Amino acid sequence: MGAIPARLPGFQDLEDPAIHEKFARAWSGADFPSKKGWHLSEMFEAMERRDLKALFVIGENPCQSEADRHRAEAVLRGLEFLVVQDIFLTATASLADVVLPATATWCEAEGTVTSSERRVQRVRKALDPPGEARDELWILSQIAKRLGHDFGDPTAEEVWNEVRSLAPMFAGMSYARLEERFGLQWPCYDEKHPGELFLHSRLWKEPVEGPRAPFSVVQYEPQVERPDEEFPLVLTTGRRLDSYNTGVQTAALPSPLRRGETLDISFDDARRLGLSEGDPVRVSSRRGSVLAPAHIDPGLQAGIVFMTPHFQDEIRVNVLTIDATDPRSGTAEFKACAVRVERAEP
Q1: Would you state the pLDDT for residue 269?
Q2: Which of 109-113, 119-123, 237-241 has the lowest mean pLDDT?
Q3: Among the three residues 165, 187, 204, which one is the final residue of a domain in this structure?
Q4: What is the DSSP letter of 235?
Q5: Which of 129, 146, 186, 282 could staple 108 via S-S, CB 3.0–4.6 A?
Q6: Residue 335: which pLDDT band, with cuts at 50, 70 and 90?
Q7: What is the SS3 assignment for 79?
């Protein structure tokens, strides 16, 4: 949907003149950038340089999700103007100059949702939003109107039909077909197309349809921060099955699988440090430290410990992580930083 800084909806190349012109015509000659913008890590760098002074955050919680929370919070506090549109008052929203309460689009609004298997399905409104919460489309349309461009009051289906008209991979996905087929997988090029079961099935056809898939050779580079005598363990972070990201949408809901945040450690490292299940430990990196109970995980190999960002109101795990980024993707190195684990006084 154009969230990648070099792509327009449907993964279309922003810098391709023909594609840029197609969107400009559809958008009444709108003047919009024709060169790649900043990805998230570059946006934080720009905020530090004061090249980016205002931010509109929709459905994200970078204060708690970005690596090196000390830096992330300081950068967000340094903005001249911060707007957050969300369904909860997140840690990021608590820093905002303006908070726009939005709807939970899975049950309080009409629209579509796309799963990780590329299946687009209809979402239907079942509940009215609480309090002053407003539909996402209404909020954006009202902002556009106040900035001088009246979108009117478009329905979710009208917006989706515009997407279909501009992005060939969605062209065959009318609301009627999505209802009839209980969803379709993109790409789906016309109203007779069944949707592609496999994303790259065209590559197995003879002759191959379209260009072949490029393969890129990259050289292995080790993690930026390696373990040493002072910080001898590698912390890797990730998710657990019952929770999602910073826990905004899941932490308040009960789950029989949830056990709260722990420092997961191998049996060998626990024995070496004299730790038992549930013992309080202090986890320290070059950026900060947190307290957490130890959990002995027989699936971990010695030298590696694991934590999640799911419970950052209680244990600020991203205080530990490093903000080094991959030069190609811009993704922070959440999967590896050097830490020290010590028994803490109960």
Answers
A1: 97
A2: 237-241
A3: 204
A4: E
A5: 129
A6: confident
A7: coil
**Tokens coding 82:** 């911060």
- Quick one: 175 exposed, middle or buried, by C-beta within 10 A (0-12, 13-18, 19+)? middle
Sheet with 184-185, side-by-side order of all strands: 111-114, 119-123, 184-185
Strand ranges, E, within 218-311: 233-237, 263-265, 280-284, 289-296, 304-307
Residue by residue, DSSP assigns 176-215 as HHHHHHT-EESP--STT----SSTTGGGGSSSPPSSPPP-
- 28 and 124 part of one domain: yes
186: nearest Cα among 112, 131, 136: 112
Give the predicted TM-score (pTM) of the model. 0.86
More confident residue, 157 or 198: 157
pLDDT in tens, 45-69: 999 999 999 999 999 999 998 888 8
Count of Cβ atoms closer than 10 Å to residue 110 Cβ: 17
pLDDT tens readout for residues 206-257:
999 888 888 888 888 888 899 999 999 999 999 888 888 888 888 878 888 8
186 within some domain: yes
Q: What is the pLDDT of residues 261-291, one digit of tens each?
A: 999 999 999 999 999 999 999 999 999 999 9
> Which residues, other chains included, contact 168 with Cβ-Cβ below 8 Å and sequence gap of 6+?
10, 187, 189
User: How many whole angstroms separate alpha carbon 155 and alpha carbon 36?
Assistant: 30
Q: Answer yes or no: is 84 within a domain.
A: yes
CA–CA dist 10, 17 (Å, integer): 16
**What's the CA gap between 5 and 10, in Å, rounded?**
13
Residue ranges with strand state E in 213-262 = 233-237
The token pair at 159 is: 């917006």
- 150 and 15: one domain? yes
For 73, counting Cβ atoms within 10 Å of its Cβ (0-12 exposed, 13-18 middle, 19+ buried), the class is: buried
Which range of residues forms the domain containing residue 122? 7-204
pLDDT over 80 at 308, yes or no = yes
